[in-house]
DNA sequence: TTGTAGGCGTTATCAG
DNA sequence: CTGATAACGCCTACAA
């Protein structure tokens, strides 16, 4: 059996380079003022010995771990197993991860992905308190999720992925949900649809509520259009889905059952829209000729739908990158006051509407 | 601005409890022999002060981080962005994560998910050398991936998710791929299919190669069957897909174009099978009446297919849990000799075949 | 510009 | 059973 050789320490590098430990430390953290010749000698010693700094020792003194957590909180899912499955299946989280890691790389900071459901939450809190990470990117969509408040109470730097439900002095990044829904409504109207309906997300999730509000209130306001053409329905039919494919399918089925004349459908997520497409087509109705469908997210499933989905695009990667930047700023400047950054969504035209 | 109060240290707890630091340490690590009364007093002091051990200090002395990395390596994907998207979209990785975290929890060990493509590999190596983690669960399917060998050279405890391509003395967990493919072949034959074909995975991935081999060689051997009925085709048509939905669809299209009489199809992954289903149905052929389709993985998409997919099930969660247990054993007993654990797949009957 | 020395918060080895 | 005391590997005043 070959036992693993212990990592070389800074002292060994110093000895090889013929300098003191402090000097080695200086060139590693490229502190100013190290004679070029010495610096070079140290570099050589480092590569010669294969030295790599010990993170534990370093962060013990710097009080920095150089990593941040991406906490994905879904308190509602009781079943841990299906919960993780969902997280790793929903393209949204992949985009967030991609955006965040990209922004973090220049800062030389690692991202630790921490999925959590209700049962885990205290574990997560403990994890954060132990100093594993310097800050938290918190993805929490559920309005009643206690985690944002708890994390804030910890005093650890944090950035949320959407407006916190209560008044919490914390930074967040969000998309203008109402504007996105209005974009969808306007497009459906402009292509001539008059029997509109929507499949909204869970109403205890702000995004679910706001997309519904945005859709309805735009239709309520567009009196110009409603005068120019047939009157719009006073009451826009809506059925609630759960942001899953199956949920979207069931919701669409119910909707078409109750309102067979529907010719325009706004679905609050692409995943649900994919299910809705099936339901619509199962009833023998063509998309977009008979029923036009607009999704939300512009996730990768939008392209896999048939027909490809017209959808409201959130710049998720950019948003995640912005979250990361905000977080780094808070970490580097403790006491910096919280701020929010709101992104405007855009409409991506494909074939479904 | 409220500045965050520093975490209480062990000394403070000791002072509150009226004991020495060493004693506090003992109750925390519940070392043997601490007087019950003292232990209780310390516990009280801990909750009173809200003490949480500092992981950096601890792992500096124990040389343990109490976390392991789940490295997901896909050296082929040049585009980082789509790469992460794929990882977080493929249900397989979610299952792995679920299985591993579940097994790790009792050990009080955290899982750090580290996706990596070719460009990142040296970063990953550096990360591992820095001592962030005590060991590595390495998911690497590509035969030419240099990472397994590099990780092994590091001397850090590691467990692979499949047999390494070269002779590497390292533990791994795998499923009997050939047996799984044979299961599929046997089932298709038994339901009366005689014009069999397969959509195989990339041949530079062992799983891709072995599933193809297993399928073909079972058919070659089943002379009993081929005598009892019409002779089987000597050459079983096969087209290579890339383990994506779109790839499966394209492959199926090509297959049906070249061999319109196909009545039984083995697809080497559920994701590809979902695409294949579309292609088959687009040609106006019914599944399973005209063409029976068997997938591989029993991932969550198998249930979302229509019709729901008959598929070969890998017990992915259990396999990941086994990987985690093997890894913990290696971590706790350095020098333990490597071993492999092979799981037998099963056939899950649904409606597609 | 470089070296010396103290301390970061734990665990672990000893005595007592 | 409990308490000193010495590491663990690094950073950082401070001194030279």
TrEMBL record, chains A, B:
Alphabetized GO MF terms: DNA-binding transcription factor activity; transcription cis-regulatory region binding
The cross-references to SUPFAM superfamilies, in alphabetical order and at most eight, read:
lambda repressor-like DNA-binding domains (SSF47413), Periplasmic binding protein-like I (SSF53822)
Give the transmembrane ranges: none
Limits of the HTH lacI-type domain: 8-62
What is any Pfam family matched here?
Answer: Peripla_BP_3
Which keywords does this chain's UniProt record carry?
DNA-binding, Transcription, Transcription regulation
Q: Does the keyword Hydrolase apply?
A: no
InterPro entries in the record, alphabetically? HTH_LacI, LacI/GalR-like_sensor, Lambda_DNA-bd_dom_sf, Peripla_BP_I
Report whether DNA-binding shows up as a keyword of the record.
yes
What is the name attached to this protein's record?
A: LacI family transcriptional regulator
